[in-house]
Design brief:
By secondary structure, the chain is of the alpha+beta class. Helices cover 17% and strands 23% of the residues. The N terminus is likely disordered.
Length: 113
């Protein structure tokens, strides 16, 4: 199953501080897990509970154009596939991480000659 395209990497790059690196990791094992992490200012604790609400724009995004629909759409697309998305601050070294997880259906490989 293809993982839906999302605005998460674009948004994180727009809010990145001093061009710090952005890391993307993928892990498989019953589900595909993709995490996108940056070293920017992190997410406001007040914004965390509402980030995936329709039309919600966090305090730090006011200087960036947008409608506040991107993360809501991502959550909806993932829900259709029994997937999930969440965000968290990376307190030890700053920045934020957005993670999506999608169940992976394993099918036997059939080879015909």
């Amino acid at each position: 199953m293809p993982v839906p395209h999302s605005a998460i990497p674009d948004d994180m790059l727009l809010l990145c501080v001093d061009m710090q690196p952005v890391f993307i990791n993928a892990i498989a094992g019953g589900e595909l897990v993709i995490a996108v992490r940056d070293y920017g200012p992190g997410l406001s604790e007040a914004d965390l509970p509402r980030l995936f609400d329709r039309f919600y724009r966090g305090a730090q995004t006011k200087r960036v154009a947008g409608t506040g629909m991107g993360l809501s759409i991502v959550r909806g697309l993932l829900a259709v596939e029994r997937g999930r998305v969440w965000s968290e601050n990376c307190s030890a070294s700053g920045g934020a991480r957005f993670t999506i997880a999608v169940p992976v259906e394993q099918k036997p490989l059939v080879v015909t000659t």
